[in-house]
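Hi all, long-time lurker, first post. I run a small reading group and we've been trying to get comfortable going from sequence to structure in the token notation. Rather than ask abstract questions, I figured I'd post a concrete chain and ask someone more experienced to write out its structure so we can walk through it together at our next meeting. Sequence below, copied exactly:
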Amino acid sequence: MTDKTPRRRSDPLVKPYLKWAGGKRQLLPEIKKRLPENLGNFRYFEPFVGAGALFLERQPRRALINDNNEQLVLTYEVVRDHIDELIAALNVHKANNSEEYYYQIREQDRNGEAFAGLSAVQKAARLIYLNKTCYNGLYRVNSQGLFNVPYGRYIHPAICDEPVLRAIHGYFNYENVEIEILNDDFEIAVETAGHGSFIYFDPPYHSPDNTNFTGYQAGGFGENEQRRLRDVFIARTDAGARCLLSNADTPFVRELYDDNRFEIIAVKAKRVINSDSAGRGEIDEVLIRNWR
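-- Answer (accepted) --
Happy to help. Here is the structure in token form:
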């Protein structure tokens, strides 16, 4: 447990502590230009939070963040609740980091019983360590849900970025901040969002040729899920929520959101993390919002 202690708002050290495929740090300037006025008056929802670039940059006072990646959500909870133990565990990984050690840690999820016996802190530290030292910062699991990215051979990986982790912990525990953290389906995560709510949808992108990485979870996020997301976007629009969505600029996505209530804005973003080199570099994306 930690005491709820005041801190200065909008701490610049509150920023993503993970590298995440599809992360929005490069696109933040474009997104920030399209946010609602007086965003601080809204309850903030992000049902595909990932590394949380927009969430952590905005630092909303009232928010619900969600992801269907159980291990990712666990890291947020541990940063919030067990910061000293997490930093100690990360420093052990930092001291032992090598290619051989990396594969020993990576193999832990191959033994279900042994992995279940790890504490929440050990699991969170494992994910952060693997994320910081794996090839290209790529979070990818196979069809069995097992992390399968090779070692990255970085010279000085930032395995334990203590100032950033402590700043995020402080933000989560600020006395006037209410952050709910969920590990659920995106539709459930936003079902209470209506008037006075802002939702940022940042799903795995539509990828008809499979060059956009979508391997965060076993099972992926195909076109049927994209259609279900569109239906949720419409339902939350009807409920009165302000909604902003990022996705790939494809004919399929444009057709899904072909509704005169929605504005489709073409933007370009740089991608440096992808499972295929063809998916890196500057790519066409869209921001879709339900107000003008």
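A couple of things your group might point at:
The radius of gyration is 19 Å.
Residues 28-70+163-289 form a domain with the Rossmann fold fold (CATH 3.40.50.150).
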